[in-house]
Design a protein that fits this description.
468 residues; mainly alpha; Fumarase C, Chain B, domain 1; Fumarase C, Chain A, domain 2; Ribonucleotide Reductase Protein R1, domain 1; 3 domains; two-stranded antiparallel sheet; two-stranded parallel ribbon; 19 helices; 6 strands; 62% helix; 4% strand; binds arginine; arginine biosynthesis; Argininosuccinate_lyase; EC 4.3.2.1; Fumarate_lyase_CS; argininosuccinate lyase activity
Length: 468
């Protein structure tokens, strides 16, 4: 309003874009604000490329040296926080090259010989994701260590085990914590597996077809720590399955973290009261002075949704793209960066919570003793000691539970004469299996919840972590 068509290039966004369609084009095309994060990998890729160009005599050695030295200066500037940010430069690849040209002059123009931004970005991004995997792996390892340490400490702490969130059988807290250690171990293997697949070099694929220059792809691959060059130039510039592998491993990992976070949220609630979260991981309410909210755990739970969204976003972006490169693929980076940042924070928060949470064994034991949690132990006793078929033992036990419920007592508080009205084959020996401690102690099968079994599995896990 008030702006004539002449003054404005476009009625809808003319105020912002003075230059008309060309300015909109620049805006939609620009990715520098996001892919600035690739500067380190971009310069490493260029260093490997120019060293190879010099060694192969594709550019004069003196020029290659001048470019290498100039790239070092660009890197130093970026390191000092002066990463190019002029949006006119389009993306980080153009930006570093433009800065190089300012520093070393026209010789900079030789750097892009036998290379395209297509193989350049594929290389940079692979390098970035590789570093990201290593970082996540370190974070996961710290979380495993925290889980194992707390599991060892709580190997004999009795708590209710749940199915359907109904009290099922007593378990030990150490056992419960080690369950998450196992999930995290599998998450690590997924990341490590994707790292192995990712670790091949696209550099030298050029735009899509390879190049007529006598490049040495083994040399650049080795210089960048890749196991080998990728075998097909079309594949090299057009697939982003390495980024999807990362995102899908991240999504699975985030799901595990969110389930652990959810346990903390439930355990910290007043009706449960199994833990008190330290101040460092809680917040108060602006209106209810008594509140201590498990915000960090809730945010880990929430972040999992966003990470899954990132994986979905890139899957959909890549779906149905024709070979080789299409500009849609520029949208590969934001979901990976976002997921990585969220996962990193979630890992730090979960590790911190696991390390510092205060468990409340008294509350856990009281809950474990409710809900007739040792009913299965009674049934098993009838099978083992009296030779009763399990199905029949199940019925007998059901009647005993009904009686206890009616009398408002625990199973082990039922007097023997009352138990014998249910089934005359029951004798005093049954009381040895009805307590929660007896119940957990009896479950010594491999991977079971008995304290000694938990200690053995924790020791195994610790030894594996120490061996790394
Ligand atoms: N910024 C681009 C990206 O991230 C770099 C590749 C550009 N290639 C091209 N053919 N326009 O995908």
């Amino acid at each position: 309003m008030g702006i004539s068509r002449k003054e404005s290039s476009n009625e809808m966004w003319g105020g912002r874009f003075e230059g008309g369609p060309a300015a909109v084009m620049r805006e939609i095309n620009n990715s520098l604000a996001l892919d600035r994060r690739l500067w380190r990998q971009d310069i490493a890729g260029s260093q490997a490329h120019v060293a190879m160009l010099g060694a192969q005599g594709i550019v004069p050695a003196a020029d290659a040296d001048a470019i290498a030295e100039g790239l070092g200066r660009v890197a130093a500037e970026c390191e000092a926080g002066r990463i190019p940010d002029d949006p006119a430069l389009e993306d980080i690849h153009m930006a570093t090259e433009a800065r190089l040209a300012e520093l070393v002059g026209p010789v900079a123009g030789r750097l892009h010989t036998a290379r395209s931004r297509n193989d350049q970005v594929a290389t940079d991004f692979r390098l970035w994701v590789r570093d990201a995997i290593d970082e996540v792996d370190r974070g996961l390892r710290s979380l495993q260590r925290a889980l194992v340490a707390r599991a060892e400490e709580q190997a004999a702490t009795v708590m209710p085990g749940f199915t359907h969130l109904q009290v099922a059988q007593p378990v030990t807290l150490g056992h419960h914590l080690l369950a998450f250690h196992e999930m995290i171990a599998r998450d690590r293997s997924r990341f490590i597996d994707s790292r192995r697949r990712l670790n091949e070099s696209p550099l030298g694929a050029a735009a899509l077809a390879g190049t007529g220059f006598p490049i040495d792809r083994d040399r650049t691959a080795t210089a960048l720590g890749f196991a080998r060059p990728m075998r097909n130039s079309l594949d090299a510039v057009s697939d982003r399955d390495f980024a999807l592998d990362y995102l899908q491993a991240a999504a699975q990992c985030a799901l595990h973290l969110s389930r652990l976070a959810e346990e903390f949220v439930i355990w910290a609630s007043q009706p449960f009261g199994f833990v008190s979260l330290p101040d460092a991981w809680s917040t108060g309410s602006s209106i209810m002075p008594q509140k201590r909210n498990p915000d960090a755990a809730e945010l880990v739970r929430g972040h999992a949704g966003r990470i899954v969204g990132c994986a979905t976003a890139l899957l959909v972006t890549m779906k149905g793209l024709p070979l080789a490169y299409s500009k849609d693929m520029q949208d590969d980076k934001p979901p990976v960066f976002e997921a990585h940042d969220l996962l990193g924070l979630s890992l730090l928060a979960m590790t911190g919570m696991v390390e510092t949470v205060a468990f409340r064994p008294d509350r856990m034991r009281a809950a474990a003793e409710g809900g007739f949690s040792t009913a299965t132990d009674l049934a098993d006793w009838l099978v083992r000691v009296q030779g009763i078929p399990f199905r029949e033992a199940h019925h007998v036990t059901g009647r005993a539970v009904r009686l206890a419920e009616k009398r408002g007592c625990r199973l082990w508080e039922l007097p023997l004469e009352v138990l014998r009205t249910v089934d005359a084959r029951i004798d005093a020996g049954v009381y040895e299996v009805l307590s929660v401690d007896a119940s957990v102690a009896s479950r010594r099968s491999y991977g079971g919840t008995a304290p000694e079994e938990v200690r053995a599995r924790a020791a195994e896990a610790r030894a594996e972590l120490d061996r790394e």
